[in-house]
Design brief:
This protein is of the alpha+beta class and about 130 residues long. It has two domains: about 70 residues, no CATH class; about 35 residues, no CATH class. Helix content is about 25%, strand content about 30%. It contains three helices and four strands. Strands 1-4-3-2 form a four-stranded antiparallel beta sheet. Strand 3 and strand 4 form a beta hairpin. It is rod-shaped, with a radius of gyration of 27 Å. It starts with a helix and ends in an 11-residue tail after the last strand.
Amino acid sequence: MLLLEFGAFCCRIYGVIVITTKSGKKNQETQFTLDSSFGFQEVENYIDVLNAAQYGAILNEGSVTSGGSLLFTNPSALGVGTNWQAELFDSAPISNTSISASGKHTYFGSRHLRVVFVLKDYSSNL
């Protein structure tokens, strides 16, 4: 179990490396191929949630409906508040590299895919 968890951890941090080998074709010149791509990924759509003023109005409505008093005299004074989704998510790099060599006797291929999570890293602030 520990090995599986460590393997999953390494894949998250360092990416995935896949190596394949096959027999080559006779009378074929050795060919090398390198493919590489790099980009950024980010959260495309955030979930629609209430802002602070809307949330205050809902709390007031619930309090009055249940026989209580207003919790906020002016909910619009609460403003927008913090968009926690925008605070938590960030753009993150993604890269994919593959190399192969094929020739008369052998075929060798290797691929490295690295994906980093889009959550911001706040561990240095702890």
